[in-house]
Amino acid sequence: xxxxxxxxxxxxxxxxxxxxxxxxxxxxxxxxxxxxxxxxxxxxxxxxxxxxxxxxxxxxxxxxxxxxxxxxxxxxxxxxxxxxxxxxxxxxxxxxxxxxxxxxxxxxxxxxxxxxxxxxxxxxxxxxxxxxxxxxxxxxxxxxxxxxxxxxxxxxxxxxxxxxxxxxxxxxxxxxxxxxxxxxxxxxxxxxxxxxxxxxxxxxxxxxxxxxxxxxxxxxxxxxxxxxxxxxxxxxxxxxxxxxxxxxxxxxxxxxxxxxxxxxxxxxxxxxx
Length: 273
Fold this sequence. Notes:
The chain is of the alpha+beta class. The strands form four sheets. Strands 3-4-5-6-7-8-9 form a seven-stranded mixed β-sheet, sandwiched between helices. A three-stranded antiparallel β-sheet has the order 12-14-13, covered by helices on one side. A two-stranded antiparallel sheet has the order 1-2. The protein is globular, with a radius of gyration of 18 Å.
């Protein structure tokens, strides 16, 4: 497998995300049914259809795929992978079910346990975030499925804004989960308020919290509740390629991937500013 051409792989990942987003919106606009997994997390046809589209689009790359909706792959097999895609075909299924629009398609490329490329697409808003360690991070508005055509991807890159965005002075801002905020998060927020009395708190669903930090809308995103590698890999790539950091709460080092346990420890996301 060759991951040296990150620009080509980024284009393929963007195409996969846009096509998956189109399929998700088709189901979003219907009276869809909801099933529940063993851990009581919701599952819809949108999750499953998006997974199929992404897997088919990424398959020609010859890079193994770890997806929330794919087959369970034992660590004994995964541990030998130097590179892999980590995908959440529909991040924020709870938000999808609530129909509040705050759900995303997440695609990341991992190399030697570190995210080197990431794509996050919010279908309802038509906003696309993408990044690689070669190009930096970008945000593109009005990204539609038609942009997935190979000849149109170049114009999409030209329309995008490099992250972080320029911003005027504002209060220190922390972004927190819309659906998962426990006592540890509240205690952390209280500590930040001690040094930033004018602290502003915003809520967002899915991986959009990473995107808000990457673009400079928020300064900080703490997470103490449970997440999995596919919830964070693409967001971490976008934050890091924009000059920010994602720190493992247990090791105080960069959060790594393709670990034996795909459940993440607590982590802290900081923007460049």
